[in-house]
TrEMBL record:
Pfam families recorded: ABC_tran
Listed InterPro entries: AAA+_ATPase (IPR003593), ABC_transporter-like_ATP-bd (IPR003439), ABC_transporter-like_CS (IPR017871), ABC_transpr_LolD-like (IPR015854), MacB-like_ATP-bd (IPR017911), P-loop_NTPase (IPR027417)
Protein name: ABC transporter ATP-binding protein
GO MF annotation, one: ATP binding
Residue ranges crossing the lipid bilayer per the database entry: none
Domain of life: Bacteria
Organism whose genome encodes this protein: Dactylosporangium aurantiacum
Keywords: ATP-binding, Nucleotide-binding, Transport
A GO CC term attached to the entry: plasma membrane
Stretches assigned to the ABC transporter domain: 7-242
PROSITE patterns the UniProt entry points to: ABC_TRANSPORTER_1 (PS00211), ABC_TRANSPORTER_2 (PS50893)
Matching SUPFAM superfamilies: P-loop containing nucleoside triphosphate hydrolases (SSF52540)
Amino acid sequence: MRNTVAVELIDVTKTYPGAGVRALDGVSVAFRAGTFNAVMGPSGSGKSTLLQCAAGLDRADSGRVLLAGAEIGQLREPKLTEARRKLVGFVFQSYNLIDSLSVWHNVLLPQRLAGARPDRAWAREVVRRVGLAGREDDRPAQLSGGQRQRVALARALAARPEVIFADEPTGALDLTTGREVLDLLREAVDGLRTTIVMVTHDPAAAARADRVVFLADGRIVTELASPSAAQVAAQMTAVTDRTAATMTGSAR
Ligand SMILES: Nc1ncnc2c1ncn2[C@@H]1O[C@H](COP(=O)(O)OP(=O)(O)OP(=O)(O)O)[C@@H](O)[C@H]1O
């Protein structure tokens, strides 16, 4: 049976060498399989660090990180890379496509790197679902920003990962195109039971998620279930004010 928790952090701390403050300070959070999760917080609150540690791209100083029930925090290379390739998909703000490869070969690349035989039928299906049927032979340079992000999403979905981590996936897109990409992320969760953990600064984007987790100063301070954009924005203001008050020493 499929594990119901896709990714879990237990009491994770992380301090970058030379940095005074903890980027993550005892973070515990579990993201359930088949749910769309957003992570918000002021600049420097630890969102990217959370994503990097959860995805096995960076190592926590202490605590545990479980992906599909398996602890990845203890894995050494090359086992860690292997686990990441098998379990995790990524969608970045800057797309991170290979310019010299066609759409089709970009989509198949993670499976090839993982040494797996690509599931071409499934790859064709996800390319169709993201609206890129007929564009398989194009190079990224021939595509718009929104289309490039669709390729990145198809690439993530094609490998059937346990979880897709998305870092500001709409950050480089205009409003309408960003909305279309969010529609596709939502569809990936609702139609394909994908698990998504998305970092965003945009309350409207976060409002598409089932759950929004708020970070401040490396800690999870609160969360909202299926909120409206207005509720997310209000909570962000409260969290940002609280962070500012802490920094100026006026917090009670
Ligand atoms: N490579 C690094 N070296 C030193 N300090 C770092 C490094 N990366 C992040 N930090 C620090 O760790 C803390 C958390 O940073 P992080 O990038 O995770 O925050 P964030 O919420 O993603 O910020 P933003 O919204 O600006 O992207 C900050 O104090 C930041 O300055």
